[in-house]
Amino acid sequence: MRIKVKLFARLRELAATGEVDMDVSPGLTAGGLTAMLKEKLPRLGKSLDSAAVAVNGENAQSGVTLKAGDEVAFLPPFSGG
After folding, report:
1. Helix/strand/coil for 5
2. Secondary structure (DSSP) of 15-58
3. Are 4 and 73 in contact (CB under 8 A)?
4. pLDDT tens for residues 12-43?
5. Which residue among 31, 43, 72, 78 has the highest number of C-beta atoms inside a 10 angstrom radius?
6. Phi, psi of 14 (to 5 degrees)
7. What is the pTM of this model?
8. Pairing, β 2-7 against β 71-75
């Protein structure tokens, strides 16, 4: 199944891209996708460990199961005021 991965801020810089289309196996979780991205884009490394994950615009936990066509966004921690 195919999903779209969006990377923001520092993650985008490290990956040198803001979007990645990926073919993944059915039943993959957000946590499994994180592990796959670390292999595919090793420069992301530990930066992914602290990133928030959103699936189709809603915050998601690592155990959420992904579906074909999902858009998964990884957002690094940020501060501001």
Report:
1. strand
2. HT-SEEEEE--TT-BHHHHHHHHHHH-GGGGGGGTT-EEEETTE
3. no
4. 999 999 999 999 999 999 999 999 999 999 99
5. 72
6. -65, -40
7. 0.92
8. parallel
